[in-house]
Amino acid sequence: MAAKILMVTGDAAESLEVLYPYQRLREEGYDVHIAAPTRKKLQFVVHDFEPGFDTYTEKPGYTWPADLAFADVDPGQYVALVVPGGRAPEYLRGDPELRKILKAFFDADKPVAQICHGPLLTAAVGALAGRRVTAYPALELDMQTAGATYQDAEAVVDGTLVSARAWADHSGWMREFLTVLRAKAPVT
């Protein structure tokens, strides 16, 4: 049986930040499950930059089914966690079931990959204090407020935590995360 990886997300997650790691980790031989507030078809979004805008724009992206609800997750069944970005983390960080899941992964020192706005979730459970991270650049102050040292880099590895700024950093992010996974939770 393949080692299982959990991905936590919801509506308005950035399409590329869900689907790229989902496919890449499956390609590597891991069994990836997507959890959301409820088991339903999720509506992802596409964030991009347009001339004249001071920030990114948001357009409808792909839809994808959640495999299970946060309340149905047993963190002990998973070897690692992936936390995509997009707008989803802004509202998901208030979900008590999700906070239990996040805390369980950090308490067990399991590999965690986070990208873009995903660190808003890990910050919500106090898991970034004393760590080095990167995130979407607009979150630099949020990361510092969470007690982290922000680094503007393609991928930052701090123990079993691997973070990236945004989807343009996917290859570096997944390369570093797979290095951690192969050491801590190899495919069997």
From TrEMBL:
GO terms for molecular function: peptidase activity. InterPro entries: C56_PfpI-like (IPR006286), Class_I_gatase-like (IPR029062), DJ-1/PfpI (IPR002818). The keyword Hydrolase applies. Keywords: Hydrolase, Protease. CDD domains: GATase1_PfpI_1 (cd03169). PROSITE patterns: PEPTIDASE_C56_PFPI. Residues 4-178 form the DJ-1/PfpI domain. GO terms for biological process: proteolysis. It comes from the Bacteria. Pfam families: DJ-1_PfpI. Belongs to the peptidase C56 family. PANTHER family: DJ-1 PROTEIN, DJ-1_THIJ_PFPI FAMILY PROTEIN. This is Protease. It comes from Streptomyces longispororuber.
